[in-house]
Write a structure and sequence with these properties.
Strand content: 25-35%
Distance between the termini: 61 Å
Number of strands: 29
Number of helices: 11
CATH architecture of the largest domain: Beta Barrel
Helix content: 10-25%
Number of domains: 3
Length: about 500
Amino acid sequence: MMSTSHWKTLHSLALAGVLAGGTAMALVPAGPVHAQTLAVRGLPDFTELVEQVGPSVVNIRTVEKSPARIPANGMDEDMMEFFKRFGVPIPNAPRQQRPQRPPDEDQPRGVGSGFILTSDGFVMTNAHVVEGADEVLVTLTDKREFKARIVGADKRTDVAVVKIEATGLPAVKVGDVNRLKVGEWVMAIGSPFGLENSVTAGIVSAKQRDTGDYLPFIQTDVAINPGNSGGPLINMRGEVVGINSQIYSRSGGYMGIAFAIPMDEAIRVSEQLRASGRVTRGRIGVQIGPVTKDVAESIGLGKPAGAFVTGVEPGSPADKAGVEAGDIITRFEGKPIEKVSDLPRLVGNTKPGSKSMLTVFRRGHAKDLAITIAEIEPDKPVAKAVEREEKPKATVAVHSVGLSVSELTAAQKKELRLKGGVLVNAATEAAARAGLREGDIILAIANTEVSTTRELEAALAKADKGKPINVLFRRGDMAQIVLIRPAK
């Protein structure tokens, strides 16, 4: 689109651009004719694909109402320029002589691409292509132009569906993204810089590329430029496997890295948009972070996988299911959580109200928890920090790791909604080097829950001082794990 807000590290593609042209000469070294012939035969021919899919690709133009600019003195721009050029003071028109404000003017907003999803006029494109548009115009390859109605748009996935009043349209075939392989040839058709029905080709560079919470993008080296937004990514079977959406660029132009929204994700979103005009997503109410290699080894998880729960929202589905800060969510509905971004995607794609199974790793053991998925909503404000108004009843120095701790009061436990834990009064030496500090609350140490200072000392006494000691603690509303490495 015309907005430059999308062009940062990852750039959206529907922007106005400047077209540059040139010629080039390729020098082919002499060699056996049969070798050159084999090389040519090894390259794919896209002509049939273009003929097959080309009629299903559309050009999308958007228009927004823009108030006409009128100088306060009522003069038109030519008269204003005359006064400025000759240094004549610009007079103020009397109030009664000032012209009335003219009606809003239609201003071209941008150019993007799309493709026909169904023969009765549903068209898929990017959400950023139609965002903020007062009017959407869809042009087919046969030059017919239609005013489109925006059925719905989802910013999180950047998918939108618009509807034109037409029938018998050439709809695309949707491919199976799971069959897509890295290194496979793919083709894009769109309107880069407003040049309709431009065809470019390349290969799949990577799959499951994480650049957002809900989308594992398809990365390609297909030449994608401003105006390609919303156009289809097509495999060699003539099936649409993705929607061209973003590029990585330091200059604003194509640099060999492009990203497409997988069609399985896009279809899931489009079905909800067509049914209700909006997308509902599941949520369980946890704050999560990655699991590092050191932490995984220390707690006995084995490999650095899963989503580390740093906080649980009070009253949320996770809270009701028994999820605790410090848990590592390893599976959702039996599907493994390999990296932290897998969890919000799987939960988000689950229908609110449905019952699911969550597997957590807690202090050396896996545990299954039944959970009822809620509908996603705006994040709630973080709960206020604990006010330690009461003085600690006792202080015990744990000299071996540089900790000074005390037990939580009943009021503090109630405020924090904790059953146990030990308050850090001071951290020095190994504890300080690990990152612990005054005010932290230790929930477990060496894979052992602690509710009193005696339990903390007992757990430390049993811990192997020759290895890093894992400490699960809470700071504010967030749980974290650090490793204390005692001095040898």
